[in-house]
């Protein structure tokens, strides 16, 4: 309710500021007669209600407990833009609805700034309160496997998420009593009711696919009496839930899995977006291309660009281009370094890779070495957003479900880059890629691109 009232006040204030910008600042395009501000007040209440209704429809007032700031700002951008376009449309349809078009245009950017700063301020305050122990919730994780351990690491490292993680519960007797990232395995799953009751648990996170469905239902039913909230780390079936349709054959309900969304018109729209934005990016970044091409050539012997074979759409091999960040013939040193990989699975990642040049470390820190991939996007070998393009040697060890990530064009950035980058294990990266494929939309691409800017700026997980 407070957010609703705050938005209403800021929308009204945005129109007032837009009026003064149009008629008091932009004097060189002022009309012969300046309308009185009171004339605008007669329609402002109506306009504000329209904006608030649109905000409600796109989900800005839904009670979501954990929404990244960049996601909320992206939704806000859409809401303000749609609301502004509705006002413009009203000006053409209803002549008596008289408002200066320049006032409406100014409202767009003024409202974006005011509402954006308002939400950013609230977000920062909430994070600060959580980091100091306010509004935190006691939680336990069911399953102390790889996924549970990764989740515990993230929740304990970032106190602003608002979790007080009390421990794990796991039926593996060898893990009971052990600690992972400072969090102890308290006992087996049969202790869940006692732990929830004695520690005022507010949230239980199920992070294991090995717990039978019947047990999960029993746990949820038993703990609901204590007001416990449940979250579930999705498995493969849950990831494709958005494509499940209920059908009926002979009175028997069946679940039908429909085709992935990145087909037909959707694929064409994504490709058109890639062409426009990659072309614009190549032109805008051309000075940086020249600068770093010269720096690479001057700081280490070898070619400016590094072309590496990668696996793309439907398993086709293509050559992906990057600014060379390693010493010449770095691939020849790989067999000696492969056992030192710091990432589980089929990926090779090494934080202090001796093959990386000093300039290469800088370029990787700020993802400058990825700029030439805009040419791969423009040529249709890659997309701006999509799964990471794997090396041919990595795909040789893929399971069948891993190969699903090859059904779309690989991307310069994707969900795995904005969710941990080099810190994520391979299996978790694949899960994120599959989630992206199953839930694709241009809006999701836009949000990932916005989050990528923040991740690159912070250098999270880059090496």
Number of strands: 12
Q: Given the helix and strand composition, which structural class is it? A: alpha/beta
Overall residue-averaged pLDDT value: 82
- Give the neighbour order of strands across the main sheet: 3-4-2-1-5-6
* Span of the ends, CA to CA: 44 Å
Polypeptide structure, described:
With 463 residues, this protein is α/β, with parallel strands linked by helices. The protein folds into 3 domains: 2-131, no CATH class; 137-233, Rossmann fold, CATH 3.40.50; 264-458, no CATH class. The chain has 16 helices and 12 strands. The strands form 4 sheets. The protein has a 6-stranded mixed beta sheet, with helices on one face. A two-stranded antiparallel sheet has the order 7-8. Strands 9-10 form a two-stranded antiparallel sheet. Helix 1 (2-25) crosses helix 2. The model has no long low-confidence stretch (mean pLDDT 82).
């Amino acid at each position: 309710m407070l957010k609703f009232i705050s938005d209403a006040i800021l929308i009204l204030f945005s129109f007032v500021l837009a009026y003064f910008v149009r008629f008091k600042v932009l004097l060189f395009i002022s009309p012969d007669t300046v309308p009185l501000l009171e004339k605008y007040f007669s329609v402002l209440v109506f306009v504000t209600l329209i904006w608030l209704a649109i905000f409600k429809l796109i989900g800005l007032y839904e009670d979501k407990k954990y929404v990244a700031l960049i996601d909320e700002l992206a939704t806000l951008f859409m809401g303000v833009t749609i609301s502004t376009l509705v006002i413009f449309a009203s000006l053409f349809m209803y002549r008596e609805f008289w408002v200066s078009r320049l006032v409406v245009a100014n409202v767009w950017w003024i409202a974006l700034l005011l509402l954006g700063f308002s939400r950013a301020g609230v977000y920062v305050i909430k994070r600060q309160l959580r980091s100091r122990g306010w509004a935190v919730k006691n939680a336990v994780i069911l399953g102390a496997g790889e996924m549970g351990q990764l989740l515990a690491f993230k929740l304990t490292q970032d106190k602003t998420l608002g979790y007080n993680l009390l421990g794990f519960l796991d039926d593996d007797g060898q893990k009971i009593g052990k600690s992972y990232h400072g969090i102890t395995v308290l006992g087996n799953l049969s202790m869940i009711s006692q732990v929830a009751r004695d520690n005022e648990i507010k949230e239980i996170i199920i992070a294991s696919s090995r717990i039978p469905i019947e047990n999960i239902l029993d746990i949820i039913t038993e703990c609901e009496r204590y007001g416990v909230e449940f979250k579930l780390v999705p498995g493969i079936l849950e990831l494709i839930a958005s494509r499940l349709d209920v059908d009926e054959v002979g009175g028997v309900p069946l679940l039908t899995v429909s085709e992935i969304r990145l087909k037909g018109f959707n694929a064409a729209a994504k490709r058109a977006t890639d062409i426009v934005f990659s072309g614009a990016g190549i032109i805008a970044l051309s000075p940086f291309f020249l600068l770093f091409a010269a720096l690479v050539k001057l700081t280490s012997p070898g070619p400016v660009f590094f072309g590496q074979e990668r696996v793309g759409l439907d398993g086709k091999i293509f050559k992906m281009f990057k600014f060379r960040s390693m010493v010449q013939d770095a691939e020849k040193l790989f067999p000696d370094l492969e056992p030192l990989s710091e990432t589980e699975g089929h990926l090779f990642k090494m934080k202090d890779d001796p093959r990386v040049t000093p300039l290469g470390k800088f370029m990787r820190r700020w993802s400058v070495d990825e700029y030439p991939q805009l040419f791969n996007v423009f040529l249709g070998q890659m997309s701006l957003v999509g799964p990471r393009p794997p090396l041919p040697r990595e795909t040789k060890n893929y399971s069948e479900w891993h190969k699903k990530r090859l059904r779309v064009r690989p991307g310069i950035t994707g969900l795995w880059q904005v969710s941990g980058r080099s810190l994520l294990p391979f299996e978790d990266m694949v899960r994120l890629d599959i989630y992206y494929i199953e839930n694709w939309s241009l809006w999701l691409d836009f949000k990932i691109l916005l989050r990528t800017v923040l991740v690159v700026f912070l250098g999270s997980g880059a090496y």
